[in-house]
Amino acid sequence: MGGMVRNFRAKIRSVTIAAMILIVASANARAQNLPPPGAYQPIPNFTGVGAGLQFREAINQRFSGTQPIAPSIVTPTYANLPTEQDGMLFYCKDCRSATPCVSGGAGAWALGTRGQWACAGAALEAALNANSNKISNLASATVSGDAIAFGQTGAQLNTLSGAKLDGSDAIANVSLNGVKNVRAFGATGSLTTASATTAGGNATVTVNAIGDFKIGNWVKIDHAGAASDANTPTGVTVVPNSYSMNPNPTSSITTTLTNGGGCQVDSAATNPAHNSACNVSYTYQIVGVSQGGGWSAPTGAVSTSAGPATLSTNNNLVVSWTGAVNDIAYLIYSCSGASCTPSLHAVVPHAQAPGSTAESYRDFGHAFGNDEDFGTAMPAAATAQDLFAQITGVSGVSVTLSIAPAQTGSFTMRHDDSVPINAAISSICSHTAAGGTVGGIVEFPATSAYPLGQSLNLYGCWGVTLALTGAQNGDGGHPVELEWHGATGGIVINMNKAADSRIAGLSVSGINGNTAGVIIDIDNYATGGGGDGLATQHDTFERLELGRAGIGIRVANRSSGNVQDLSFRDVQVSNPSNGQGGMWGYFFGGSGQTYNEEIRGGLIEGRDVAIMSAFVGQLEIYGTDFEQNKIEAWTTDRFGGGADGNMMFSGVTSEGAQYFIFDPNNTGSNFIIDASRIADAPGPNGFLMQLNRPTAIKSSWLCGGGTTICGISNGNAPSPQPIFSMQNSYGDASPFRNGDGSNAPDTMTFTEFGDALASGVVRVGYLNHAPSIEACSNAGTVAVNTTIAFSTNSCQKISTATTGLTYTLSTTGLVADQVVTIESYITGAIAAGPAFATTSGAIKWTGGAAPTSSIASGAVDVVRLKWDGANWLEISRSLGDH
Questions:
Q1: E strands along 416-463, which residues?
Q2: Among 639, 592, 637, 635, which residue's Cα sits nearest to residue 617?
């Protein structure tokens, strides 16, 4: 019995010891897994009366949050998540951060909410406040609404500023604060092309490489559209034109063979315009181009066999034809010599309104123009229009278009940014021509070239600006290029009825792409719709680079109303690196009239004519550089209407032109040349200026270094519209020419300024109605009775060695109270000196007797008279001076 008790006690001790070991081990294990001190408040070991209550309160405090706890949440896998109960929380070991929860992740909290397990934050139901914290790592936008301000109305960002100040933290491709970014409207700025194989009527085409083309892009597929709607020109003629008396030319370079002109030869072999023969054949063919890019079949070949060996302003060929209704431009193909093959020679826009119109091109020998599909080769037949469409689907190299091509074959597909750019313009322009309803800025981010398949349309826009993004000082290299891929001969920017608008900091170089007919067309013609009340005025153009084109800037080509108050500042109408330039730099006034236009600075280079002026009220040119143009300014029609306009050149430079001004008219108005340098090298004994209007030349350097005959002509002498000259330097000691082919100095060589009165009579000796030095014109030596005219100079010199002549004083062109001076020179001893008579009225001599003229060789008699409107009144006489 005692042994049994001892054995039992021994077992109790061993069990107790084992239990104590387990308790200690367990306590050690728990101690190792406890949270760090301070992370929770442990429950004390309550004793005594109320210990149970204290224990329950301690538990409640920890569940209620009064005391911190460190619980461990159950961590099932996604497959073991229980049935969802709202408010239940687990940590799912293999869930992804998504709502609802999905497997395959590295773990996420799973919260039972609204009937599903949510492993990510729910959608916002109230405004989000980041409390001045940043949001980073946003994904790129893919559809509307999944990124900040992604094409959503009213989603603009305001008052953004970068911190790096180097542009690296700028936000691209978004529109801010009413400034429209063309990239935000879908412009690609990409010149990528692809070869597209088409089947007529099938909207899916196959490309050789997809490149950067994607769904939503607008594209142009060259000549894959409908059949051509262009018309072949008719009535083509080729006529040689020249001076009527080479090498001493008259004032006309537009005289045909039947009128004494045609082709002329000269002996000035060292001059670049020298022409040695008039038996060279020239052949021309013309292709019409429509708005949609369709080409007509070429005309038949038309030739002349009497062309010059050297084409120039001296000897040129005028090609004329009749235009057609659908044609917007004409491609002139030509060649010289027998059995030659014509190639592209010039790109000429259709003149005035579309329709059957007399068209012409004057060939000075300057070739320019290119088509990116055909180069300079002439197609044998009509060519289809271009196709304009949007990409609606892409699968590998298969591209689905919004419009099916009409042609079958292989064609070039290009981006067409004109559609999104026009959308940006339309977002701030109502196109109603009633003054506009919005206005704003359309910006082009740099550095990019934006391909244009169609014209940019600013019709009826008010207060709209097209500009390079951001501020720019000076020329800036023009980092934004608008590359024309539209119809060869088309218009790049159309500004009909645009007011208070601006284009700045852009380039249309014309180096690549198709050659435009007109780069910027500014007009004021009605479209036939309502609201055509907006006048084209106050438009500004600055820091532009305009290269190869038929016409750089065309103003008022067809308008019936005024286009006025335009300003062109630092506009480079240049001769680009391809060296081709174009036909005209600026054209002012066609059917309508322009007023108060201003060109400041800039350049006009490599043109047949720098400025072609037709109907202009006032045109002022300040500090512009004219370089390597054939003619700087040609006035073709009325200038200033009846007599209310001027063309003024101030501080300009001209280099290398045959003419500074060519003016075949004599209708009112004036030319003013001030503080300018005109160092041209005219053709064989040619004219620096051919002038038929009153012209003031002041404080200028003219006629180069005097190595050529300067030849400032006042037209076909005698002219009632003289030149007024003051304080100038001339390379030619006797610069003025009559323009009659003699090449002798003009009898009217003025060294003073004058005022032209309303009647057209000129009063010499006044500059702004202040006295000036008077100088005489020399009528030369005479041997017969002679009439002395004072309509162009009140002082006349005349010489004779002949006995008994009569000098008749003409009253033609005189004004009441005009004072005249006659200087009579005796160059050889004679028996009786000249007597004086008059064509009108009587001569009232002092003392009632006429003076007895000198007879001794070397004598000079000076007589001063005043015409009072009815008779001559002697003022003074000085006889027999030597």
A1: 440-444, 448-452, 456-457
A2: 639
Neighbours of 849 (CB within 10 A): 7
Distance, in Å, from the CA atom of 388 to the CA atom of 365, rounded to the nearest integer, reads 36
> If DSSP codes are grouped into helix, strand and coil, which group holds residue 58?
helix
Could you tell me where the beta strands, DSSP code E, fall in 396-479? 398-401, 409-415, 440-444, 448-452, 456-457, 464-468
Is-contact 673 699, C-beta < 8 A? no
CA quadruple 482, 486, 490, 491: dihedral, nearest 10: -40
Q: Which of 287, 438, 460 is nearest to 369 (CA)?
A: 287
CA 282 and chain centroid, separation: 34
Give the count of alpha carbons within 13 A of 297, CB side only. Answer: 6
**DSSP assignments along 485-526, one per residue:** -S-TT-EEEEEET-BS-EEES-EE--SSSPPEEEEEEEE---
| pTM of full prediction above 0.85 | no
Whole-angstrom Cα distance, residue 310 to residue 73? 98
Q: Which two tokens stand for residue 361?
A: 């091109």
Average pLDDT for consecutive 10-residue bins of the chain (882 residues)? 49 46 42 57 83 84 78 88 92 93 93 92 79 73 54 46 47 69 94 97 97 96 97 94 58 63 77 85 97 97 94 89 93 94 97 87 94 95 97 96 97 98 94 75 90 96 88 55 97 95 94 96 81 83 95 90 91 84 90 83 95 85 93 70 68 86 68 83 61 76 63 54 67 65 56 43 36 64 90 86 93 86 92 93 91 92 92 91 69
